[in-house]
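## Example pair
The file below holds two records. Each record gives the amino-acid sequence first, followed by its structure token line.
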Amino acid sequence: MLSKTLIAVALLLALGSCTGKKTGFVDLFKLVEGFELQKEYTGEARREMEREKSMIDSIIYTEKLRSPATYETAQQDLYNALYRKTEERNKEIEKMIWKRLNPYIVEYGKEKGYAYIYGANGTGNVLYADESEDITEELIEYVNKRYHDKK
């Protein structure tokens, strides 16, 4: 199975080089980290989570004074609920980020004449790429400009 995948990737790379169009790769972690919309969403989510945690802390303190024997269960339940809500919020943010990023990446690829833009970060199909093909920083600048233009 792995050898079929490697053959397919090699064929794609070979076909891409025959077209005369460029190929490049992007560090996906850096791209998302550098996207200003992501920074805005995560900052907002962090502030909301901190507000909710403060409220939980107040509830737990009141419960500890009222019923010292059972407050630990309430504390665990409330923090678990906050954790689940935070995880759901993070997944939603990730979906919203990629919904905005994907069209920008397509536009960038077309404007710059790329046949392929690969995502790389050591966890996907591209495990090594020559650094001269890294377009991450250029793409971060592009997507942030497009984001601000559409704001």
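Second record, same layout:
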Amino acid sequence: MSEITVVHLMRHGEVENPDGVLYGRRAGYHLSELGRQMADRVAAHLEGRDITHVVSSPLERAQETAAPIAKAHGLDIVTDDRLIEAANVFEGKTFGVGDGALRRPANWKHLMNPFQPSWGEPYIEQVVRMMGALTAARDAARGHEAVAVSHQLPIWIVRSFAERRRLWHDPRRRQCTLASLTSFTFKDDKIVSVGYSEPARDLVPAHLLAGAKPVKGKVKAFGA
């Protein structure tokens, strides 16, 4: 008899980031009050589900997002370093609409190869680690469901791989909104479907929704 397991890759909620920097793997970036509401909303959405395993990236914003889900199911949070945000040479810098970051000569050497990409962790390396984290969560929740809290870019890349799409892409077109769930259904060891949902969509600022057009003065933290 086949065994069905579901692993929900969840993107963390909104982060307190008044300076609008690309915070990446930097420590000290916590959920905003709105981000905590998003986490609570998803926890309530998943309350009746058969969640037996909750795992998270080591970064604070992911751990804080996982906390209400783990509490609702009486579970401890497991930390998996493979769920961490993608490395990026522009960490700590601002990349707002029209700020000229991409026109600065000092940045050009990092922008030579968008297919790798040359500015950060290679896409294929993200696939390898994220598939490892995904299968580990599957194994920990065999026959049940797991929640794994991670970050936008790694989630989108592993979904693209599973759906046999190219890995290089336009960041504005990632379908991975704050506090969203990208759900992988396994039949035994094989991924048989990938679903997507946004339980906290009404809490997400319009300019941060998947596919939203950039708005001048509003920072959209790609890959956060």
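Notes on the second record: The helical segments are 33-45, 60-72, 105-108, 123-140, 152-162. The chain has five helices and six strands.
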